[in-house]
């Protein structure tokens, strides 16, 4: 099989890239290899079933499990993948192996990085701190800004266009969701600090009928999500469907259950195609292409390079400096809670997603310690109205139970820095999809626990300003592999990273990485918007290449 | 002994027949009763088309729902004959015995697979908007983590928002 461009992976990165290229060159021949299968989306009956039962529609059919890593093995269960190091990165639930990738089950939080995030190494050095393995991005925020704007329109972000948290050249496509009444508790508490803690509307992707480029209507269901009450979420699978079903793009094809195993090369610099396992017929097949786009995510993307072209690259493509798979970063996600002894306003979470975020501690002043954000989360309501009614409680009884007290929560993400020891590599063992399992090494930095004590002290002060009592930890910190990044990080030189500023693998002429793997550092916020912006930027680069 | 207290046997086979207009109306009356009992809305008619789609979708997803709806019709008829209409719904909404697990009586099946589902539907369609004591001006939870409907709302905020 021959194609102009082969894209490995079908997530948001691939979808944004393909959409951009086809918009300008609709006859481009593009083939997407997706390791997973396809599940049913946008089914109103399934949505209603979720509303009534609170169960994801595919729970009983094991489809959720069929799209995800299993837990790590222990003596009682075989599990998947292998963990080493001192801080576990749970893989289960972090990735979705299916048509459309992980946006089929994401929260939609769509932050921009802040300008200082592109200069982490410089910032640390200016503070007199040894930067260790940390590097700067090879370009600054101003380079990314137009692509951030384009990305916000591509995935349909609702946000506050007057928010000065990050400089912007244009408005969000949709206005921000107003703060909830419950958000007011936190806002009032933020104002009580000697230097008031700033806050803003959380930008969130709400892709629906009102989107100018949308031809498929709202999402309704993805099958894997905790559904949003608006029935509208950006899911790359829906946008892929639009492209595939359009008569305008006759040379686009998406092969599901196609597991990319090796990138093939005819010289050390030039790739010729991809060898993959066709799970549908069990056959090994090859697709030849002029351009190879590795959009398989920060874990699988790095592993594919490591196992490719070993006759020309001893440790895998782009890996002469043993950097591929290293510098793994993800986001520790923390949860704190406290209790309001009385609740006369009957405050309960009223939305399936948050509307308030504080990036006050996601600032240059905090950068050397690890920036973090605080979110008033969409936690479950204390009193479940439906359950109370079903249990025979009367209206008055329910009202009384809501007014008695309530739990308030603060959640957040915190930035950690690159460490060469942290990495992903291929295991010899294959999982049930037929993919090589992953061995992960991860070590948290020595000062991490102290930093979390600082975070906890700040949250306790906030709760204190709210007159909430019994502050504590809701759950242990989750290290969240769903934000895994930096495993083939971007750099000006091959001694520091794996891809160049155009996302092309150093030392090759036609292999590009397009995933969180290329982040030079991760910042304190969710990576999807930045990844989408990078994909659109790569699209511009490739269009220029194709014109040439 | 009342039939609704009998163990449900060969449940699907005995009840698998077409849902007719009479039974559909019986189900709609249940929905209206839910609105009234918990004072969730004074205008249930506005939710009727969503209600009808819901019933249709439940059956389409799982044909056994036909039997559940038929069973509900039989149970409410028998309860009404025995207790009168008001007391019949009172029992259906508040009798703890109807929530036994597993739901092996006809009453329990009617409660858990029909009544409880329509309660959740009622809330998700907007019943939450008026839930609460109207006398407490700020105390009304106008939303519920169910379905709000719509995509990006510019003109209407379907939850309690912080005053500017």
From TrEMBL, chain A:
Domain Glucose-methanol-choline oxidoreductase N-terminal residue range list: 210-332
A GO molecular function held by the record: flavin adenine dinucleotide binding
Protein name: GMC family oxidoreductase
Family recorded in the similarity comment: Belongs to the GMC oxidoreductase family.
Domain Glucose-methanol-choline oxidoreductase C-terminal: from-to ranges: 477-534
Essential cofactor(s): FAD
Organism the protein comes from: Chitinophaga flava
Signal peptide residue numbers: none
SUPFAM superfamilies: FAD/NAD(P)-binding domain (SSF51905)
Keywords attached to this entry: FAD, Flavoprotein, Oxidoreductase
From TrEMBL, chain B:
Protein name, per record: Uncharacterized protein
